[in-house]
Amino acid sequence: MTTFVLFGGTGDLAKRKIIPALYSAFVNGRLDANFSFIGAAREVLTDEEFRLRVATSIEAYASKDSGDNPEKLAAFLTLTHYAKIDARLPADFDGLKKYLHTSDVNATLFYLATGPDIFIPVVEQLSKHGMVDGNTRVVVEKPLGHDAHSAKEINSALRNYLKENQIYRIDHYLGKEMVQNLLALRFANSFLEPLWNRKWVQDVHISISEQVGVETRGDFYDRTGALRDMVQNHLLQLVSIVAMEPPVNANPDAIRDEKVKVLRALHKFTPDEVSKKTVRGQYRAGAIDGKPVIGYQSEPGVPPASRNETFVAIRAEIDNWRWAGVPFYLRTGKRMASRSAEITINFKPIPYSIFGKGQGPLRSNRLVITLQPEESVQLFMKAKEPGEGIRLSDVALNLDFADASNLRRVESYERLLLDALHGDLTLFVRDDELSAAWAWIDPILNAWKNESEGLKSYIAGSWGPAASSYLLAQHGAAWDEEYVEG
Ligand code: BG6
């Protein structure tokens, strides 16, 4: 018997991601036969009313391969129930108990897709009502805290009721196919390892750009900002996987042991370094794909004079033997020119060109790992253009995953839900990783708080403020879209 209880069951994340992912797992036969799903939220709803919402969310957001299958949908809905729970009303938790069976339990998963302020009250009540035991797992959504101190408080309060291996801190980037492929690329191939270090790597770029604005989350986003929303978690998780040492095996803790070492080795900025090595921006009105869009300060829920950042670029460094002196340029923003998530490893230039100038592009080799919108790995090399004489051009050895396999793609939320149901912690963030990430973020947050001048504006639909280009240009580097062949 597996029971999945979703707190925040009527929220946006539930609607768009979690319920469709659960349904996809169901349709593809990945859930056990005795599965049940209980949505929990403050609203007063009947089972039928909640089922209607579940059906609407599946219709709008389920992946294509979940198909149009009325029978499966009906079967899923009969397993679906609703419990009205206000986390501050202990009596509400009584209503949940009847769904939690005491015999033949495989796992009970409580997914807290709510604000962090109610993580602790919920877990406390679950525990007081006797609903926490050895088979319990709790998934907590980001943001886990708003700085190092609050994250520590949440972690230690959770640990009053749960063991560390019962806590699944979700970062949906870790569930993306290409992030796992990065592990395969690095640790199942021999030719990259000798090059994967300061001797051969010039710099590393990790960029996650979005075209969407703050959508319906203006109020939340204005209290969060791009640094907390994307850098503290998704970008730093990608840094840790790109930069980690080979783990001793693929067990969850072996991998997480190596990731946390990277996060601890991130060079912490002084206030002066923050102003030199970070750029923050906020979008103003512009256009996305030719259609006009409003500026951040006019978004619903955002105060008109907000100083919150919707864009961040950082020149990070890792103080260890493998990476000393290699810049890791990190960038993320909303309302940018295109949607993409990409990791680029730029290798050092050749020591000397025997071909002389004017023979074609001299940009050095690079490995580009694209997470989205498409999944690919490309190794850019130099080759001679066909024809007379020697003229060089950039050609890519291209591994296109859409073409490479027609096996079913598993969306990141589905993968992570199934991992949590099966008790696999590999793709979840451990408490020490979270602390190390916040410890690096805190000095940036503090310096920004004390420095009102730093926020730059950028036009919606651009690649961010000019200062972001300058951050790299002063070191002779450029973001990929700005690269001019010399
Ligand atoms: C979430 C952020 O964690 O990631 C959102 O809170 C952001 O602001 C989203 O839009 C991006 O995820 P993806 O998978 O669409 O790149």
What does this structure look like?
It is a single chain. This protein has 486 residues and is α/β, with parallel strands linked by helices. Strand 9 and strand 10 (291-293) form a beta hairpin. Helix 6 (148-159) runs antiparallel to helix 13, helix 8 packs across helix 13 (431-449) and helix 10 crosses helix 13. It has two domains: 2-141, Rossmann fold; 174-408 and 430-482, Dihydrodipicolinate Reductase, domain 2 (2-Layer Sandwich). The model has no long low-confidence stretch (mean pLDDT 93). The strands form three sheets. A nine-stranded mixed beta sheet has the order 16-15-14-13-7-12-11-8-17, with helices on both faces. The relative contact order is 0.14. The protein contains 14 helices and 17 strands. The chain binds 6-O-phosphono-beta-D-glucopyranose. The site of 6-O-phosphono-beta-D-glucopyranose has 3 residues, from loops.
Compose a concise summary of this entry.
The protein is 34% helix and 21% strand. The protein has 486 residues and is an alpha/beta fold. It has two domains: 140 residues, Rossmann fold; 288 residues, 2-Layer Sandwich (Dihydrodipicolinate Reductase, domain 2), CATH 3.30.360.10.
User: Which kinds of small molecule does this entry bind, naming each only once?
Assistant: 6-O-phosphono-beta-D-glucopyranose
Using only C-alpha atoms, the radius of gyration works out to 24 Å
Looking at the overall shape, the CATH architecture of the largest domain is 2-Layer Sandwich
Strand element count:
17
Beta fraction of the residues?
A: 15-25%
Structural class: alpha/beta
Strand order of the largest sheet: 16-15-14-13-7-12-11-8-17
Residue runs with pLDDT of under 50 for 5 or more positions: none
Oligomeric nature of the chains:
single chain
Total tally of structural domains:
2
Give the overall form: globular
Number of helices: 14
